[in-house]
Amino acid sequence: MPDFEIEKSAFERGYKLVCGVDEAGRGPLAGPVCAAAVILPTDTIIEGLNDSKKISEKKRELLYDVICEKAIAYSIAFGTLEEIETLNILEATFLAMNRSIDGLEIKPDYALIDGNKAPKGINIPCETVIKGDAKSASIAAASILAKVTRDRLLMEYDTQYPEYNFKKHKGYGTKEHTELILKHGPCPIHRLSFLKKLLGDKK
After folding, report:
1. Taking a C-beta distance cutoff of 8 angstroms, is the pair 108, 17 a contact?
2. Hey, what domains does the chain have and what are their CATH numbers?
């Protein structure tokens, strides 16, 4: 289970406020990528906090509210569909991460980034943590905020484009989703750069 050992290591090196940063939605075929940054008090206990991929949708929704209530500060931001298409998914993810850090009302002096690549242009010292959402409580909290926020957005898209059943697969490339794309063609929220292999000459 994630804890505050990595955060405390940063404190021992002289940093005062440490945020965890994670993203959701790099892999799907539709919608933006979402990132969150969270500063948690290290004496807080959030029961059930874990990597967002390891807990149920219902549990994530409950934890979302607890995290927002207990966090010293949190911020959620997107890399847009247009940025994914014109730059690439990695660059759009970096933009979302930097926006989430910059959006914190209380400014951190250190960031823990999930993964093995720090966002280009980050303006505070940071370290990357592979599988950080299973190790750092701050990153785990960020993973839940990002995942819930993006899932909620895809639920909204489902009402606009019900023929794709976004409420079920949240834009990921499931068998059902790819079959529906082939049947109906892409809609305005699909990432066309992700569909080249699937669509071939069918676009």
Report:
1. yes
2. 5-159 (3.30.420.10)
